[in-house]
Amino acid sequence: MRIFSCETHINQALDMFVAEQKTFPMLEKINENEKLSTKCAYCNVAAIYIVENEK
């Protein structure tokens, strides 16, 4: 599972991940190249974070 999130929705993304996956996620900042094209899963703002399963 992978959720892209802006600053405003990061808590919602973390809560959703834990509720669905029953485990704690990895939280990483998106690199500068991906920021331009990646949108938040909850709004149309550019995403800053990736919440995902451990690699």
Can you tell me about this structure?
- The protein is α+β, with helices and mostly antiparallel strands and 55 residues long.
- The protein is 29% helix and 22% strand.
- It has helices spanning 10-21, 32-35; strands at 2-5, 26-29, 49-52.
- It has a 3-stranded antiparallel β-sheet, covered by helices on one side.
- The protein is globular and about 30 Å long.
- The chain starts with a strand and ends with a strand.
- The model has no long low-confidence stretch (mean pLDDT 92).
What attributes does this structure have?
55 residues; alpha+beta; 3-stranded antiparallel sheet; 2 helices; 3 strands; 29% helix; globular
What overall form do the CA principal axes indicate?
Answer: globular
The separation of the N and C termini measures 11 Å
* Order of adjacent strands in the largest pleated sheet: 1-3-2
The overall average pLDDT, rounded, is: 92
| Count, helices | 2
